Amino acid sequence: MVTLAGFVDSYADKWRAERLVSKVRGVKAVVNDVEVKLPSHARRLDPELARAAVNALQWNILVPHDKIQIIVEDGWITLKGEVPWFYQREEAERAVRNLAGVKGVSNLITVALSPTPTDVKQRITESLRRAAQFDADRITVEVQDHRAILRGTVRSYTEMLDAERAARKAPGITEVENHLTVDPQAYVPV
Fold it and tell me: Coil, strand, or helix at residue 105?
């Protein structure tokens, strides 16, 4: 067990010290008693820090900033909300960690566990529209737990695989049942 003590002039330094020590061979636990003492030029009022945090999340394309709430109290940033992917949770914290005036960060963002048929359908539709090969409206999606069930008609085997691939990429989906049928004449105008 390693105990860190002392003072640093930014939360980013405290965070880095903890990460470096935790990577040392044989270290099983880290007690981080390092205190952040901001120099006068780095201090910010909470409203100013809150604005900077909002901007940092908006500027980061990996973060769905509209799903995250920021609370700032005495230089400590708390992040709340729900995101579809774990990397988005990590990226939100990374975006605010290095801001001047931050004394600490509590990341309370949760990752959505259960996909909805609408989420999966939207992903499939977006993917297929990008491919511009067929009409995604001819596919129905049912979600049971973490399984997506696809039904409908597509024009080619490639389109069938594209739909399945899109469903697999939806948040929370771990299994796809593909009941799509291939009919090359499916969209021939009469």
Answer: strand
